[in-house]
Each structure stands twice: as C-alpha cells, then as structure tokens.
Amino acid sequence: MAVLLYLLVLVVGVGTWLARRARGRAAVQGEFALAGRSLSTLEVAATLAFSVLGTAHILGVFELSWTLGAAAVWFSLAHVVLLVVVCLSTGLWVRRLGVSTVPEILELLYGEKMRVVVSCVMAGVVTGLLTVETQGLGILMATMTGWSLHQGAVAGGLIGILYVIVAGMKEVGYLNVINATVKYGGLILATLFLAASLPGGNFESVRSFYLHRGEPQMLSIYGTPQILLSFALASIIAVLFSQGISQNLLQPAMGARDEATIRRALWIAAPLNGMFGVFAVVIGLTARSLPQFQALGPKVAATSMLVALLPPWLAALLLASFLTAVLSTFAMACLAPATLFSVDIFQRLYRPDATEAEVKRATRVAILAVGGSAIGVASALPPILAAVNWLFSWLVPVFWVVVFGLCWKRSAGVAALTLGSAWVVNSAWSFTSLPALLGVSALPNVYVTLAVTLAVSVVGNACSTGSEAYFSSGAYRTRRASISLRLPETVRMTAKSG
Amino acid sequence: MFWHIFIQSSLFIAAGTLLGGLINWLTRGRGPGA
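Predict the joint structure of the above. Result:
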C-alpha cells in the first residue's frame, strides 16, 4: 500500500504542479503531446529508454531466461541497438521535419490517404502493446496487494492514465527521470540481498547448479550459435524495424528541444534500457536454480522467489521499481494512439484550425478511451502475447517506406503495394496454414514481412520513375526554412528569462 | 555469475553506444536532410 501511495502522490503531485506552471503561459502548439518541444536531454533519454521497457523486459525475460539462460538478455540488448539507430536516424529525422506524428511523414512523402491508413494501423498496433502492459500492471498489482488480477489491472490502469493525462508528455518526462532512481535503486539493492540470501552469500551456488547440469552455456550471454541466430538476431530485427518507426518511441524525440538533445540522449538512454535486462536475467536464473521455486515453473518462479527471499520493504521497493517500468510504457502507449487520433484524424480531417486547447482536450478524451478499453480488454486476459509477433510486424513495412521515401525515391504506388503486400503476407502467416505448407512453421512473422517489404519496395522503386528523395526535394527545403523561421519555445523562454 | 553476465552485457552496450556516438559525431551537421 505504501508503494501505491508513493506512486499516487508522485503522479498526481508532478502532474498538478506542471499543469499549474503551464497555466501562467500562453499555450504553444504541441504543448500537451510534445511538451512544447522543450524536453531536455535527461527527459528525452529517460523517456526513450523507458517507453520501450515494460512487461516484456521484466516478466518476459524472467520466463525466457528459464530456457535460454543468460542469452535472454539479448531482448534488452536488442533495445540498445534500437536506441542507437533511433538517436542516429529516425529520431533525428522526426525532429528535423517538425512533425507531431509519424503518419504525418507519410503525408509529406505519399499523400493524405497514406497518412490516414498508417495512422489507423499504428494506433491499433500501439493499443495492442498497451493491452500487454495493462496485463503486466494487473499481475504486478495483484502480487503486491493480493487483489484479483481484474482489480489489479483497473487500479494499475488508473495510475497509468494519471501518469500522462494531467500534463501530457512533460509529465511523463519528469516522472520518468524521478523514477529512474527508484528503478535502479530497487534492482541493485534486490540483487545484493538476493545474493546474500544464497549459500555462501553470493551467486556461486547458482553457477554450480548450471555447471553440474552440464549447461555452461546458460551462464553466458552468447549461449549457443543457434540461440544467437534464432533469438538474438530475431530480437534485434523485430525490435529495430517495428519500434524504430513507432509513434510511442518517436514522440519523445519529436518533443526534444533540438537535434543535439537527441544525439546526447543516446549516451544515457542506451545503458539505462540495456542494463535492466542483466538484473532480470540474473533473477530468472537464480529462481530456476532453487528447487522450491523451480517447481513453480517459469511464469511465477521469479516473482514468488523475490517475495519469499527479500525483506518485505525491499520486495515492495522492487515491485515499485517494476511497476514504474510498466507504468512509463503504459503512459506512452496511451499517449501515442491518443496523439495519432487528435492530430491525424481530429485535427487533419475535421478541425484543421483547431486551437491547442481543443487538440489537448481531444487527446485527453482519447487517452481515457484508449486506456479504459485496454483495462477492459486486459481484465479478460486474452492471449495477447501470442499476438505480439503478428502485431509488431505491421510496422516493418512502414519503417522501410519512410526510410526509402526520405532518402531514396518516392512512389505512392510502390509504397501502397509494399504496405499492402507485407500486411497481407503477415496476416496469412499468422492465420492460415501457409507456413506449414511451405515447411517453415518456425519462421517468425518479422522475417517474412521484412523479406516481402524489401523485395517489393526495392524492386518497385528501382523499376518506377517516382519522385526524388524527400530530403533532396524543394518541398523539404521550403519546409525546413519555414520551421527555422518559427521561433522555438525554448528560445522564447530563454529570451524571456534573459 | 552476476559479474560475468554484467561485464559481457556492459561490453556490448558500451561498444554499441560508443559506435553510435562516434557515428553521431562524424555525421553532425551532415547526413540526409541536414
């Protein structure tokens, strides 16, 4: 209960303080969804790192380490690769283009229809992710309080909505910076106490367990060559090409003060996300080595072990650390589809002259609708995790259509064909017996979708005349000039304080 | 065991971040659309 109280006070306190502070100033465009493009290096870094660090990093890695051993950390390391690429390319580009949503780039490249289609697909994908996070919140809340999973999901979901609805992106940024300390403090202390509670006061007994079983590969992140190929590489490809263009990850980059802020954020974001997996893997490996928890199976062994072996105050701190990790992902997964709705649908199609206050209201309503529906769906516990593979592959063609359009060639026909064929094949791979017919049932959706995307878009662009790359076009130069003429909020604030 | 996994992962993260930082530095003010 102390953990819940801490979260509630923090979330409401920071949100109210930021909202009150903003009240005195004239609203700038993107004030709510993009923090008025004023996020600092620390806020961008923490929000980039924690937008893609959620349930899968905790409960998923606990479970994976059971079968893959230390190599399960590649799920985390794949996110390091993702963050490096985002801070070097897509993150910089969205800031450079001055867009508020990823589908807005699709309109610049290929026209309005493409924007609306991609916006709807992306909102669906991120909402699917949100449902997974809500289930994670439910499980963690239930472990902490003894409530039912349903009650846990409702309570967790409500705190998650409060994490973002009061002051938007600025609130998420502030809370993420504050909670970074709780996350790592809890993890480091828990690892120390866990080691102390083992025979010899260290992890030597865990190491001996795997060596005696003849499984030394479980103790190395390089596992076996087969694990590296089938898991590490697959994780990197899946995470990079689906999340690398996703609204929930790129929105903090859009809200950054400038491009240099995103470049600097890399130094903090990559280790902040990557190191989390090390602790999760060690906890998972330890749980499997202890007979009393091994008997519980991979799904609940690690959390049961933590509750049983750690002193109650530390177990609570660690659960708070896990909760804040899931809450930060939940908040961005709520804000992203809500922004897609308010900017790409509400403002673009129905109210082009909407004021910031109207867009903010639409975003808030959408946050409530998206968050509320995720709570409703998650309480029913559908097998969403099984759908993640299918769900995330939808964004793979979007990544390449954007990259090629910005840097190589633009052809609306080829882009539509690429998206259409990749989406059809992805769905056929999940819902028909096509993989079995081809004798490759084990091949993940992301590989197939990537192959179709690259084949169609490379051949299509090579054969079509198309227009020049957007970055080489006159339209881009005009846009760039008009963006630089608009005085950024930070400059205005600096001028005011000076 | 902890330190072994910690060091292996840290090396990968450090290598990835440093490589990214180096590319960042080399391409500052350049790259597509810069």
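The radius of gyration of chain A is 23 Å.
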